[in-house]
Amino acid sequence: MKNDLLIVKAGVDSKMFSEIRRQTISHSSETLVMVVGTLGGSPMHAYRTMVFLRSIYKKIFFVVFDEAMSAGTLMALGSDSIYLENGACLGPLDLQISHPTDDSIISTLDVRDTASATVQQASVVMLQLYNKNRKEGLSKSIAMNAAIRMASDLFKPIMDKIDPFHLHESYRNAELSASYGATLLLGGMIKNRFEAAQISTHLANDYFDHGYAIIKEEAKGLGLKIMEQQELSNIIDLDKIKSLYDQVPLENVIFVPTDNRKSEESQVKNKKENR
Asked: Quick one: pLDDT at residue 208?
C-alpha cells in the first residue's frame, strides 16, 4: 500500500498545526501513516489538526512508539486505527488549567473532584455526629439538626475556597474534551454515536491522574481500534519507520509524501543538521 508519512515529535500547539498544514500541501496519497510522540498540549490544535488531515486523507493510521499523551491521545482518536508498540501508551483527556490562586498547572478534574469529595466527607461526618448524638440520648430531630450544624461549621471554610466560577469551568472543560473526542472518533474508527460518546467521556472524566499510562490492552478494552504488529507491517516497513522516528530531533515535524520516499533519510538528516 502506498502512503504518505508524517512524523511528529513535538508539543501540540499552533506551531505544530501550522507546520503540518504547510508540509502536507505536497500530499500525494489517500492514506497517511502518522507517527506521533508527544506529552500533549492544546486540545483545540489537536482537534483542528485531525479535522484538517481527515479532509485530505481517506485513511489515517496512527502509530505510537513511545507516548502520545493528553492532546496526543485526542489526535489518535481522529485516526482509523492505532498501533501501540509494547510499552507505548496513550493518556487521559482531562484538560490542564491554571490553579485559581497560584497559577500552578492542575487537572480540570481537581476542582470538580475536590468539591465532590468534600461534600461526601461532610455527609460521612454528619452521620457520625448524628449517631453520637443519638447515643447520648438526644431525639432524632435535635440530633440531626445538631449534626448538620456541626458538620456545616466544620466544612464551610473548605467549601468557601471553591469558587463557583472555577467549579463550573471544570465541568465545561471536561465536556469540551469529551465533545472533541467523540467527534473525532465518529470521523474514523467508531460509527456508533453512543459508543463514541462513552469512550471519550471515560477518557475525559474517569482517570485519577493526568499522567496515567493507557497501554495497548486497556486501549482495546475501551473500544478503540488497535492494530497488531503484523497488520501494520502489511502497510509500512515498521523497522525502517521506527529507525527514522528515532533519528528525528525533538520539536520537529517531518512529512514525506509517497512519491518522495527515497529522500526520507535525507530529510531527517537535514532536520538534525539544522537544529
From this structure: 81
Which residues, 6+ apart, have CB-to-CB distance to 198 below 8 Å? 223
Q: How many beta carbons lie within 10 A of that of residue 166, not counting itself?
A: 17
Spell out the residues 6+ positions from residue 104 whose beta carbon is closer than 8 angstroms to its own.
Answer: 98
Superfamily of domain 4-96+175-273: 2-enoyl-CoA Hydratase; Chain A, domain 1 (3.90.226.10)
Alpha helices in 105-208 (DSSP H): 108-135, 140-159, 164-186, 193-205
Give the integer Cα–Cα distance in Å for 212 and 204: 12
List 83's β-bridge partners, or say none: 63, 227
pLDDT of residue 272: 54
Q: Which residues of 42-73 are buried (b: 16+ CB within 10 A; e: fewer)?
A: bbbbbbbbbeebbeebebbbbbbbbbbbbbbb
Q: Are strands 4-9 and 252-256 parallel, antiparallel or unpaired?
A: antiparallel
The Cα 37–Cα 45 span in angstroms is 15
pTM passes above 0.85: no
Q: What is the mean pLDDT of residues 156-175?
A: 67
Nearest partner of 227 among 69, 47, 96, 59, judged by Cα:
59
| Residues 203, 184: Cα–Cα separation, whole Å | 13
Closest alpha carbon to 71 in 185, 209, 180: 180
Written as nine digits, the cell of 171 is: 465541568
